[in-house]
Amino acid sequence: MAVLATCLGFPRIGRDRELKKALESYWSGRTTIDDLEHTARNLRRRHWTAMKDAGLDHIPSNDFSLYDHVLDTAVMLGVVPERFASISDPARRYFAMARGLQDADTGTDVAALEMTKWFDTNYHYLVPELAPHQTFALDPSRILREIDEARATGVDPRPVVLGPVSFLLLSKLAHDEDGRSTIDLLDDLVATYERLLGLLAAAGIGWVQLDEPCLVTDAADVHRAVYERALARLARLAVRPKVVLATYFADLAPESVPAGFEALHVDLVRAPEQLDRLIPALGDAVILSLGVVDGRNVWCTDLDRAHALVHRAIEHLGEARVWIGPSCSLLHSPVDLGRETKLDAELREWLAFAMEKLIEIRALATHAQSPHPTDVTFERARAAHASRRRSLRVTDAAVRARLAAVDKPMLHRASPFGLRAKEQRSRLGLPMLPTTTIGSFPQTSDVRGARAAWRSGKLGDEAYQSFLRDETQRCISRQEELDLDMLVHGEFERTDMVEHFGQLLAGFAFTELGWVQSYGSRCVKPPILFGDVSRPAPMTVAWSSYAQSLTKRIVKGMLTGPVTILQWSFVRDDQPRRDTAMQIALALRDEVADLEAAGIAAIQVDEPAIREGLPLRRRDREDYLRWAVEAFRLATSSVRDDTQIHTHMCYSEFGEIIDAIGDLDADVLSIETSRSRMELFVDFRRAGYPNEVGPGVYDIHSPRVPTTDEIYDLLKRAAAVLSVDRLWVNPDCGLKTRGWPEVQAALANMVEAAHRLRRDYTELRPA
Question: Residue 104: inside a domain, yes or no?
Answer without folding.
Answer: no
